[in-house]
Amino acid sequence: MIRSITQLKPAEEIERLLNGLDRVFIVGCGTCVTLTRTGGAPEVAAMKTQLSEAGKVVTGTTVVPVACDNLTGEILAGIDSQIRQADALLIMTCAYGVQTIARQIKKTVIPALNTLFIGKETGAGHFDEVCKQCGTCIIGETGGICPVTACHKGLVNGPCGGTNNGKCEIDPDKDCAWTAIYNRLKDLGRLDSMRKYQKPRNHLGEPSPGKFRLPAE
Fold first, then answer.
1. Torsion angle defined by CA atoms of residues 47, 50, 54 and 60, in that order, rounded to the nearest 10 degrees
2. Is residue 168 domain-shared with residue 110, that is, in the same domain?
3. 171 burial via Cβ count (<10 Å: 0-12, 13-18, 19+)
4. What is the domain range of residue 51?
5. Are 143 and 155 in contact (CB under 8 A)?
6. Across the chain, what does the average pLDDT equal?
7. For the segment 65-105, what is each residue's pLDDT rounded down to a tens digit?
8. Which partner for 28 in 4, 44, 109, 207 could form a disulfide, CB atoms 3.0-4.6 Å apart?
């Protein structure tokens, strides 16, 4: 399952962001951040303790099912009295969840987490990036393996000269992405795809901020 992978901001940064905001309501999420243990019920409880010990008044806490869902506004409306008492909401969700809540609640929102990447769980407590959402996808020619995220160097033509017995020169414990691509294409009988030169990536392939609109029918 694909998730937004997040990391708790340093305590000093959270303290700085909450400077002058003495009454705080904490919001966690039951999906991605619960999986990564950065914003589920235990982490929200720990944050409540941390803020209380720092002299903040925590007016309440909640863990919404899906913070980036538009129904979150209705859920928070059910505990409006606790939220109204707060100077700010400390949001322990991915950036999209923070922005969703900010659009629905007329309160200052403070993110408690940094959103790192879109990833999947590859082992207990291990998460690997699977997509940068770069807008220039070439996995149709690399056997469904994304070299931009799987290769430490992000090479779209490979392998590099440092691959050694199928391992990456930067991380010897990691399989070389381009060796994996070669083996996949070989099994599929599509090695000719690997011989196609990929033009250098346009890191600004999509104007920022990104927009996508369906064509008019």
1. 40
2. no
3. exposed
4. 2-116
5. no
6. 89
7. 999 888 888 899 899 999 999 999 999 999 999 989 988 88
8. 44
Torsion region of 142: left, alpha or beta (phi above 0 gives left; psi -120 to 50 gives alpha): alpha
Phi first, then psi, for residue 13 (nearest 5°) are -70, -40
Across 6-27, average pLDDT: 95
Question: Can you give the three-state secondary structure of 16-59, one letter per residue?
Answer: HHCCCCCEEEEEEECCHHHHCCCCCHHHHHHHHHHHHHCCCEEE
CB 85 within 8 A of CB 23: yes
Indicate the number of domains in the chain: 2
Residues 176 and 137 in one domain: yes
The answer to whether residue 66 is domain-embedded is yes
Q: How many C-beta atoms surround the C-beta of residue 54 within 10 A?
A: 12
pTM (2 d.p.): 0.78
Q: Do both 38 and 95 map to the same domain?
A: yes
In a domain, 139, yes or no: yes
